[in-house]
Amino acid sequence: MFLTISTTGIPERPATDLGFLLHKHPEKAQTFSTSHGTAHVFYPEASAEHCTAALLLEVDPVALVRRGKGKGRGGAPDAALAQYVNDRPYAASSLLSVAMSTVFKSALSGTCKAMPERAAAPMPLRIEVPALPARGGAELVQKLFGPLGWSRVEAVAVPLDEKFPEWGDSRYVRLVLEGELRLADALRQLYVLLPVLDDAKHYWVAPDEVDKLLRAGEGWLADHPEQKLITSRYLSRRWGLTRQAMQRLELVRLAESDDLDVESIDNAVDETADTEERPVPLAEQRRAAVLAVLTAAGASRVLDLGCGQGQLVQALLKDVRFTEIVGVDVSMRALTIASRRLKLDRMGERQAARVTLMQGSLTYTDKRLGGYDAAVLSEVIEHLDLPRLPALEYAVFGSARPRTVLVTTPNVEYNVRWETLPAGHVRHGDHRFEWTRSEFRDWAGEVAGRHGYEVEFVPVGPDDPEVGPPTQMAVFTMTAADGTGKPAAAPRTGTTGTGGTGTTGTTDTNETDTNETGTTETGTTEKEAKAA
Asked: How far apart are the two ends of the chain, measured CA to CA in Å?
């Protein structure tokens, strides 16, 4: 993925001033880590007369496959041509936009302490993008860039195969832009219009994308004749966000026409009142889903296995239908924090009788855990090494044998929607593995079959049509034919878990309750517990 920015100069204003504006020295080749690969900035040419800065983004295609499982992203049906052959490493897209915002952050904002006057003034620019996907062809490229002050907008279609001209042109063009513009304006236009032409985003479009669009579109988007198309495509056709952006752009247009501030026009809302609807954190959505399933199952005596700091225990205590709640964790430090959270020392006698916190390892059988209606393992299994999963399986399903078992774990396919998560990384450094939906279903199905349970699967969080929900939950229900409670045979030593590609080790971690960005709220290990 490649982009060049060129300029010309005179002795009074040498072309190498471009290095100051980009905050990248022309005599150095620099490397930057981005969320989906490595970005390189270098200067093929740097003289007083001509200067060219190049941005090369090396995308990790294997990581994209592992995270996206070869599926298209952002609603584009053919964003990935096949599981192991796709255009993402080569064609300019939202991946390049994110890299630009990372590498050229100061230039995008138009700030340059060394040369503030140069940053504020137009300069001769030539921008080239060798491979740009254009849904709408060269005609749409002209419609998008033509009204923005460029003296030359050239979009040459790339043929499917030069040896077979009868096959026609591909959807890719070679883009050349020439004109006198502020560097910040040119970069902002590219930041918005690259994913618009590709008509896809490689990450989940959240409400904050509206703010990003308006910041990058300041000064040109409000009056653009293709404003509706740009807004709709940039926001992945999420109509609620598109409508919000269009309304705010109309306020900008009205304010500019009357030479007023936007705030003086849009002053009908009392800013002291918090009327904005905030997104619900994934951790809260997960707890709500668990409570709903436990209520539907008619459970009253519940185990929270790997309870961490006690967030779920606290939520269960608020519902009088749950008469006995037991939180179990290997970490005494976590249990101490949970006790403080629940205010056990100040809790009334009747309320305190409903809750118990106890230390225990989930990979060992424990007679204290038998006879309960339900058990919850929320964001626990991914913290265990795969060879230790059979021990946990037997301890819960073979020995304790609650009527209902709930297991939640991250869906690794959804990781492509976290914009700030680097390619190939798990959501938290202590995760030994993260499973796809099919891997989780295979494991859960085998566990259910071995121990006399039925299993169904419930999505937690926004269920993306391409990559599924951020959290996947399996609900195990003991079958009537096997309701005797007799334990199954213990697994032989050395057996391994099903599915997944996690690493092996010996640390037993039972951290729970991972939030929507993948940071654990407990962060304690057995080693820390012993030290405590």
From this structure: 51
Distance CA 354, CA 116 (A): 66
Nearest to 341 by CA among 357, 323, 321: 357
User: Is the separation of the CB atoms in 485 and 403 below 8 Å?
Assistant: no
Which class for 51: exposed (0-12), middle (13-18), buried (19 or more C-beta within 10 A)?
Answer: buried
Q: What local confidence, expressed as pLDDT, does residue 242 receive? A: 86
> pLDDT tens for residues 266-304?
554 444 555 555 678 899 999 999 999 999 999 999 999
Q: Are 516 and 281 in contact (CB under 8 A)?
A: yes
Residue 481 confidence class, pLDDT cut points 50, 70, 90: low
Three-state DSSP at 341 gives helix
Buried b (16+ CB within 10 A) or exposed e, 191-222: bbbbbbbbbbbbbbbeeebbebbbebbeebbb
Give the tokens for residue 62. 């294997």
Give the Cα separation of 249 and 232 in Å (integer).
Answer: 13
SS3 474: strand
Q: Of all residues in the chain, what percent carry a pLDDT higher than 90?
A: 53
**Tokens in use for 467?**
């990559």
**Phi-psi group of 159: left, alpha or beta (phi > 0 → left; psi -120 to 50 → alpha; rest → beta):** beta
Does this model's pTM top 0.85? My answer is: no
State residue 516's pLDDT score.
Answer: 37
CA 477 to chain CA centroid, nearest Å: 32
What is the overall mean pLDDT for the chain?
82
pLDDT-derived band at 509, boundaries 50, 70, 90: very low
The C-alpha angle 100, 141, 168, rounded to 5 degrees, equals 110
